[in-house]
Amino acid sequence: MALIGDSFVEASMLAAPDRPGAQLERALGTRPVSAMGNPGTALVDYAERIRFAHTHFGVRDFVVLMERGDV
User: Fold this and answer.
1) Alpha carbon 51 to chain centroid, angstroms
2) CB-CB contact of 7 with 46 (8 Å)
3) The overall pTM is greater than 0.70
4) CB neighbours of 62 closer than 8 A, spacing ≥ 6?
5) 22 alpha carbon, distance to own chain's centre
6) How far apart are CA 24 and CA 7, in angstroms?
7) Which tens digits make up the pLDDT trace of 22-52?
8) Distance between CA atoms of 22 and 69, rounded to whole angstroms?
């Protein structure tokens, strides 16, 4: 599974265990989550990141963390 988003997903200001990807991974139990956040990106970038993760890594399940300004 991949978590897609902007700086809120990257969350570099938080300790690694407190970041959204780590929190989602804990909530899901044993399922690994790859956080794919990049500051300053928006909806079209998320779509490209989804395509990339599916094509190159075979990821089939995605969670997209969006906020109002992303659309």
Assistant:
1) 13
2) no
3) yes
4) 1, 2, 3, 4, 50, 53
5) 10
6) 16
7) 999 999 998 999 999 999 888 899 999 999 9
8) 24
What tokens were used for 15? 């300790």
Tokens of 40: 């300053």
Q: Can you read off the two tokens belonging to residue 59?
A: 């990821």
What are the strands, taking DSSP E only, across 1-71? 2-5, 34-37, 62-64
Number of residues assigned to the chain: 71
Mark 22-40 as b/e (b = at least 16 C-beta within 10 Å).
bbbbeeeeeeebebbbeee
Q: Alpha helix (H) ranges present in the chain?
A: 7-10, 20-28, 43-57
Residue among 35, 56, 57 at smallest CA distance from 46 = 35
